[in-house]
């Protein structure tokens, strides 16, 4: 593992953070009355599109895993379709989990679903970009000592920190502060966003500090 | 001193309880009391203030009303009268409020909103403390100065019909009374008929001065079916007709005597959205208060909104109205509109009397009373009042007199408000010193407990408590001396009263010695631990077992819950915390299971081939597989391999599905009972089921639940208890049918509703039988020491007895809670704890979490209002204190108790397995 790798990682992560910042500011030039809290759903859509776009772009440009041996067009198309299906499935999966956690079943379906979409964007999309539609590899990355490169390591950190951010984001909901951001699901989506950003910032630094201890078996 | 861990824990608990008791004694405010209690009558009433010229009016003013009828409706929320319900169901009252000669108020009750403290507040005008809630069930006679005692002393004849609490509070005060017991919550017609049946007779007679009626029906309806039930409307209409009857009778009497009478309609507390009371939501605090009398003049077109007043104001108003001295410890101020029609001199005299009483109370309770703004205002208005009297007696210019009178009145009213406010604030003062001593005790014991955890959980389950050596050390004596000196200094210099200083010197000394001994013990335990720690670090033979994610979650979750109790919202919504935690726990378990299953499959591909079919594994994963398998650190080395691999296909699928099944169960239970404060009003399945339209659905659900309960429990019972269980559950259904909660399929038309005493006792017999067999087995296992299996059997029997009791006490719509509790316990045991080999600590904490969550799934909350008192009367004919309290407590805490009982039985059965894995436990 070289320092250049870490540097590349850092730059890609900075780009991701930049895309989130852009998603906050750019729409206000085109849309009237745009603000994160008031037109939250719009922001969720825009943010999710931005982050997905940046992730795809980075995947195509940086190519962290140069292991796709077969490169026929049909293979690529099936792979892409499979990725889309996986993404949708993960959205529904997260939606089910939110309902199990106590989100209303019938009211606010759109809100809950868009929350599931943005969480999928932060977690599933990078996984799909990096690991492809391969559940086994996902399980490996998210079990202890299963990572095989700094990219996977950073993926692990950002995904887990997004989840933790979402989890912590639910805490303010029962408080009686009567703030606009306590409304379901705003605090959770904000928590997810902060968690994702924090993961993006932390993972290169963490990898840099622990670069002596980190040894990846197949590199 | 060597102690077994059990003994040690018991000692710690006893000391903790002492500390907590001391803390609570300091925390709960001492009520504002007047020192002159019964000798109040001897004191002459305050004379009119005068400046210069002498006023000869020193006697109490005469009563304003000849007869007073107090109609108290339990749980009469303000919007039942002033809101849309009032307009719809109480037309006569609405007419009186809007057009008649009446004054209406929204009277704000103080905490706790429970009947007995509220009656005390209404009659004494004081603010009863929280400690009165405990006495609510068993009210001793009221010794404080109050309106009833004053009226009796003045020779008034008082008649009372209604809640028995009054008779207990005021024994030998009533010339005639009929108490109804308030504990059959499910009865809401008979309690009120028992009051009304006397009414016709009494209203015709003229030999009484005060008539008090306390109607309980409305509150009972609230407890049973909530404030939006259609029964409320019927009850309000009934109350309206009773009010009309009383009012017309009083009016016709007035026509003969020409002296006005007073009719008071009031509520003691409100009703929360779920139908309970006891807490501090607006619905529970606001009650209706209407004073009706022909003495109150009203211009035609004069529409007034009901003003907000304090409930305590009624005592002073009643005292004035009846021509009695105001109760000594009353903090209320006179409801001025009631005396507005009187001449100015009388108005001022009344205000003066009230102000004198309040300022006297202030002098007795606040050392620095002269600095209080209310007292200064009072002195100033008294001076002005004197001036006014002089002018009045000199028969001065009427306009000057009028203006000055208005000014004095305004000043008095201001003074009264300020005085009343500062007295109410007095109630919220803490006894810091006692609280501090209690806290120190609790913290020391906690530290000692934490320090000795590793030792106590070691295999010999014994520990060395360093108690004797420190007792003879210098540090102990020094500490003791310092603390004693501190105690003397604090107690001699304290301004306000302090409970701990009130204790005898010997007791206080004992507590000080205990505190210093504990401190020394903690110190030496710490020192010992450090010495051991150094030893350990030099000696790397102890490999530290790594904590799994689950352990971290369990620890953080438990600590996080404790920390969350620092915010009041998190206390109100504590159920959310628990639901959140058990959901997260299930997901963590899910993660653990999947990792154990799939990643192990990688290493042994032949084992779980059907799982692999679903997934395409591209080249890199296959290549890595062998490497990864070596790399995978089996993190449960200490516990041996999990037995997941040995499971057959069907069971494996069950293991994989079980967290999701549990999550779904929890989600269903969550929508069964909405609880807490913020979202309590949300519609839930429980309300849907209990509404009268869905009786058939409720019956089917209850019957199904009882069958499933039997199916889940019978596995572990002996044959006799199986039969007893089946009969008992049948009896439960018969009981619910008898009291009218559910239907028999062959009885379409509802027959007359009974109290179901026979059916309930039938079930009680079986519960006692099963519990008895269980206890017998336990005792047997104590005698025959080596036999563990008998002990386990006995524990399971006790567990099933408790399940049967819970099935009897739970409301029918809550039976699914019991079913799911048993179901989750079965699934967890079979598919999670056994295959994954969790250790005893993890299982204990999971049981604790689920027990807490089930407390809230039952519909409980941290508010006293959600306690289901009707459970205490299942199978009882009359109110019996001990069984009723036991049954209520069991019904409330059934969730945690059942989980705890399951824990004990489960752990015992696991350790007693032949060749069991005792090594993995602890």
Q: Would you mind describing this structure in some detail?
A:
Chain A is mainly α. Chain A has one domain. In chain A, 69% of the residues lie in helices and 0% in strands. Chain A has helices at 3-25, 27-30, 40-62, 73-100, 109-131, 135-141, 150-169, 186-209. Chain A is globular and about 50 Å long. With 922 residues, chain B is mainly alpha-helical. Helix content of chain B is 59%, strand content 6%. In chain B, 42% of the residues are buried. In chain B, the strands form two sheets. Chain B has an eight-stranded mixed sheet, with helices on both faces. Chain B has a two-stranded antiparallel ribbon with strand order 1-10. In chain B, helix 15 (344-365) runs parallel beside helix 17, helix 26 (574-603) runs antiparallel to helix 29 and helix 31 packs parallel to helix 35 (815-836). Chain B has four domains: 2-28 and 431-532, no CATH class; 74-343, Alkaline Phosphatase, subunit A, CATH 3.40.720.10; 360-426; 569-599 and 646-911, no CATH class. Classes of the chains: A mainly alpha (219), B mainly alpha (922). At the A-B interface, helix 4 and helix 6 of A face helix 25, helix 26, helix 28 and helix 29 of B.
């Amino acid at each position: 593992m070289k320092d250049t790798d870490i540097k590349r990682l850092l730059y890609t992560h900075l780009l991701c953070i930049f895309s989130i910042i852009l998603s906050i500011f750019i729409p206000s030039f085109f849309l009237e009355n745009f603000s994160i809290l008031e037109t939250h759903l719009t922001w969720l859509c825009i943010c999710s599109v931005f982050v997905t776009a940046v992730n795809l772009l980075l995947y195509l440009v940086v190519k962290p895993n140069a292991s796709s041996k077969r490169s026929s067009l049909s293979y690529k198309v099936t792979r892409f379709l499979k990725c889309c299906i996986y993404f949708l499935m993960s959205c529904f999966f997260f939606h089910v989990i939110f309902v199990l956690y106590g989100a209303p079943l019938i009211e606010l379906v759109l809100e809950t679903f868009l929350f599931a979409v943005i969480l999928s964007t932060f977690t599933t999309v990078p996984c799909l970009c990096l690991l492809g539609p391969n559940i086994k590899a996902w399980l490996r990355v998210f079990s202890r000592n299963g990572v095989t490169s700094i990219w996977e390591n950073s993926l692990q950190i950002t995904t887990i920190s997004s989840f933790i951010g979402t989890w912590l984001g639910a805490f303010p909901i029962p408080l009686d502060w009567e703030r606009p951001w306590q409304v379901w699901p705003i605090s959770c989506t904000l928590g997810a966003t902060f968690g994702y950003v924090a993961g993006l910032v932390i993972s290169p630094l963490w990898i840099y500090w622990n670069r002596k201890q980190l040894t990846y078996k197949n590199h | 001193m060597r102690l077994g861990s059990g003994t040690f824990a018991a000692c710690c608990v006893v000391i903790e309880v002492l500390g907590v008791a001391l803390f609570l004694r300091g925390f709960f405010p001492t009520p504002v009391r007047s020192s002159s209690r019964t000798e109040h009558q001897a004191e002459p009433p305050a004379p009119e203030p005068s400046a210069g010229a002498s006023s000869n009016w020193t006697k109490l003013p005469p009563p304003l009303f000849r007869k007073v009828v107090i109609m108290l409706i339990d749980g009469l929320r303000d919007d039942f009268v002033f809101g849309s319900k009032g307009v719809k169901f109480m037309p006569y009252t609405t007419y009186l409020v809007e057009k008649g000669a009446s004054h209406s108020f929204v009277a704000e009750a103080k905490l706790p909103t429970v009947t007995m403290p509220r009656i005390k507040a209404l009659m004494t005008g004081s603010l009863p403390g929280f400690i009165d809630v405990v006495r609510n069930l068993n009210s001793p006679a009221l010794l404080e100065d109050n309106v009833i005692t004053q009226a009796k002393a003045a020779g008034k004849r008082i008649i009372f019909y209604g809640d028995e609490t009054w008779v207990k509070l005021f024994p030998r005060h009533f010339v005639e009374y009929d108490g109804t017991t308030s504990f059959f919550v499910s009865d809401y017609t008979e309690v009120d008929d028992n009051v009304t049946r006397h009414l016709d007779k009494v209203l015709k007679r003229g030999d009484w001065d005060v008539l008090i009626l306390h109607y309980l029906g409305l509150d009972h309806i609230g407890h049973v079916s909530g404030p939006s039930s259609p029964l409320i409307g019927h009850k309000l209409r009934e109350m309206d007709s009773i009010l009309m009857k009383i009012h017309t009778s009083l009016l016709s009497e007035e026509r003969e005597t020409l002296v006005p009478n007073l009719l008071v309609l009031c509520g003691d507390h409100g009703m929360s959205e779920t139908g309970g009371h006891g807490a501090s939501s607006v619905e529970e605090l606001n009650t209706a208060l209407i004073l009706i009398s022909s003495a109150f003049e009203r211009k035609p077109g004069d529409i007034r909104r009901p003003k907000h007043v304090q409930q305590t104001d009624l005592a002073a108003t009643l005292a004035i109205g009846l021509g009695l001295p105001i109760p000594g410890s009353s903090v209320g101020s006179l409801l001025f509109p009631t005396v507005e029609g009187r001449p100015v001199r009388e108005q001022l005299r009344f205000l003066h009397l009230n102000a004198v009483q309040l300022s006297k109370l202030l002098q007795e309770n606040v050392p620095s009373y002269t600095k209080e703004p209310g007292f200064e205002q009072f002195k100033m208005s008294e001076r002005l009042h004197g001036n006014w009297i002089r002018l009045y007696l000199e028969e001065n210019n009427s306009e000057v007199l009028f203006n000055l009178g208005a000014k004095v009145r305004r000043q008095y009213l201001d003074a009264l408000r300020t005085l009343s406010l500062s007295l109410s604030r007095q109630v919220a003062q803490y006894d810091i010193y006692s609280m501090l001593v209690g806290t120190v005790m609790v913290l020391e014991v906690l530290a000692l407990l934490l320090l000795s955890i590793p030792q106590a959980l070691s295999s010999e389950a014994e520990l060395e408590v360093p108690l004797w050596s420190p007792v003879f050390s210098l540090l102990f004596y020094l500490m003791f001396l310092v603390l004693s000196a501190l105690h003397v200094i604090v107690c001699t210099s304290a301004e306000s009263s302090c409970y701990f200083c009130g204790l005898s010197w010997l007791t206080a000394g004992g507590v000080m010695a205990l505190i210093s001994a504990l401190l020394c013990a903690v110190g030496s335990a710490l020192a010992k631990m450090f010495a051991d720690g150094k030893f350990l670090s030099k000696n790397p033979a102890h490999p530290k077992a790594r904590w799994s994610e689950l352990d971290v979650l369990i620890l953080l979750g438990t600590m996080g819950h404790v920390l969350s109790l620092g915010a009041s919202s998190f206390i109100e919504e504590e159920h959310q915390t628990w639901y959140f935690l058990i959901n997260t726990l299930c997901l963590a378990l899910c993660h653990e299971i999947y990792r154990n299953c799939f990643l192990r499959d990688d290493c042994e591909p032949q084992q779980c081939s059907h799982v692999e079919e679903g997934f395409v594994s591209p080249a890199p994963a296959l290549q890595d597989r062998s490497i990864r398998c070596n790399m995978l650190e089996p993190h449960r080395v200490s516990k041996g391999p999990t037995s997941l691999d040995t499971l057959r296909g069907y069971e494996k699928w069950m293991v994989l599905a079980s967290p999701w099944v549990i999550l779904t169960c929890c989600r269903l239970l969550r929508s069964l009972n909405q609880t807490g404060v913020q979202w309590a009003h949300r519609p839930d399945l429980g309300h849907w089921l209990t509404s009268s339209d869905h009786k058939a659905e409720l019956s089917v659900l209850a019957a199904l639940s009882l069958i499933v309960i039997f199916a889940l429990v019978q596995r572990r019972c002996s044959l006799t208890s199986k039969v007893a269980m089946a009969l008992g559950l049948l009896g439960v259904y018969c009981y619910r049918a008898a009291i009218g909660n559910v239907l028999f399929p062959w009885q379409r038309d509802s027959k007359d509703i009974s109290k179901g005493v026979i059916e309930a006792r039938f079930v009680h017999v079986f519960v006692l039988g099963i519990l008895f067999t269980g206890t017998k087995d336990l005792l047997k296992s104590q005698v025959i020491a080596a036999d563990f299996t008998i002990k386990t059997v006995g524990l399971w029997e006790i567990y099933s007895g408790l399940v049967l009791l819970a099935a009897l006490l739970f409301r029918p719509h809550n039976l699914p809670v019991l079913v799911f509790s048993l179901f989750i316990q079965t699934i967890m045991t079979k598919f999670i704890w056994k295959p994954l080999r969790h250790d005893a600590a993890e299982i204990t904490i999971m049981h604790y979490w689920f027990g807490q969550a089930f407390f809230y799934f039952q519909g409980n909350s941290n508010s006293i209002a959600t306690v289901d008192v009707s459970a205490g009367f299942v199978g009882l004919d009359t109110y019996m204190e001990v069984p009723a309290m036991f049954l209520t407590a069991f019904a409330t805490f059934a969730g945690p108790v059942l989980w705890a009982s399951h824990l004990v039985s489960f752990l015992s059965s696991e350790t007693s397995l032949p060749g069991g894995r005792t090594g993995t436990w602890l």
